[in-house]
Design a protein that fits this description.
Blueprint lengths: L7 H16 L21 H17 L9 H16 L3 E9 L2 E10 L3 E11 L9 H21 L5 E8 L7 H8 L3 H5 L1 E7 L10 E2 L4 H14 L4 E2 L9 H6 L4 E5 L8 H7 L23 H19 L1
Helix pairs in contact: 1-7, 2-3, 2-4, 4-10, 7-10
Length: 316
């Protein structure tokens, strides 16, 4: 981020119960005589962590970081692209220049769905030069990747079109995502029904923050966490300071999740989420210690499942 599991079954059951009480049917359930729409799968946290291990190895082999314009960033992009290509996605690399160095965005489209209604999920893939960037933002990048791979494994064919993206040079001021948005035609921008952003979702002293930009997207994430019995708060620490900002500024509905950066966890937050009050959500933010040891598995697991839940619910 640029700054100046158990429970899946329980969550699904509770959300379904609330829906039945409210309207007599489960959201997304098919009318009589039509096939039911598959529920979102559980995202194996072990798979997400395996991607983080690979990103750590890439950083270690490339000067300790995966920053814009450095070999570690391009190797990270190549790793993600290879996984997506093998899974049947149509991938596109978008090249740009910033601070005298070449940067890259990676965009992956899942075949099918109504391309006039695009549900897009993204995360920035670059780190700062100071460290490997495993929480910021390997965590979001790995969760989005594993959700995309889950789409492929499930052979999911939603009503809407699914697009996933990994942005370059976010740490320099959302350069990659802004480059992408600025080159969309007015018509193409209008076709994006929602952009979901995931930047830092495995913080070691985590909070559970939901963007409050678009009401429908916000409601979707809150419903998921209500099903888990996990309270959430509105995200304010990184508001407008990650890759959702260019989309929001262009009029695209946006939403997302965040587990906290260098703001300090309060006693009230520790009481409801656990962890340690008086310490930052991520003490290794933008530091060399942002390694695979800098991840809370429970937060990573819950947030990864929430990514998939939102993708499935919003694309039906």
């Amino acid at each position: 981020m640029k700054l100046s599991v158990p429970g899946r079954v329980t969550a699904t059951a509770v959300v379904a119960t609330v829906s039945l009480l409210a309207g007599g049917s489960i959201a997304g359930a098919a009318p009589a005589g039509q096939p039911a729409v598959a529920a979102a799968p559980d995202i194996p946290v072990a798979n997400v962590k395996a991607h983080l291990t690979q990103l750590q190895s890439i950083a270690t082999a490339n000067g300790g970081n995966r920053a814009h314009g450095r070999t570690g960033y391009k190797a990270s992009l190549d790793y993600v692209k290879a996984k997506l290509d093998a899974a049947g996605f149509t991938t596109t690399i978008q090249q740009f220049t910033s601070s005298g160095r070449t940067g890259y965005n990676l965009v992956a489209d899942w075949p099918g769905g109504d391309t006039s209604q695009v549900v897009m999920s993204g995360s920035h893939l670059d780190s700062v030069t100071a460290g490997p960037g495993i929480n910021d933002n390997g965590s979001g990048s790995a969760a989005v990747l594993e959700t995309a791979l889950a789409v492929s494994r499930a052979g999911y064919q939603p009503t809407k079109h699914l697009r996933f993206a990994w942005w370059g040079a976010e740490e320099l001021g959302m350069v990659g995502s802004r480059y992408y948005v600025n080159r969309l035609s007015t018509t193409d921008r209008s076709r994006i029904s929602g952009y979901l952003n995931f930047d830092m979702i495995g913080s070691p002293n985590p909070g559970y923050f939901v963007y409050d930009d678009d009401p429908a997207i916000e409601k979707t994430f809150k419903a998921y966490y209500a099903g888990l019995g996990v309270p959430t708060e509105i995200e304010t620490e990184g508001d407008g300071r990650s890759d959702h900002a260019p989309f929001k500024n262009a009029g695209v509905p946006v939403g997302g999740l965040f587990s906290g950066a260098d703001y300090v966890k309060t006693a009230a937050q520790a009481a409801k989420w656990g962890g340690t009050s008086g310490l930052a959500f991520d003490r290794c933010y933008h530091s060399s210690c942002d390694t695979t040891a800098n991840i809370d598995d429970t937060a990573l697991d819950r947030n990864s499942d929430a990514v998939a839940y939102a993708v499935w619910e919003l694309s039906r």
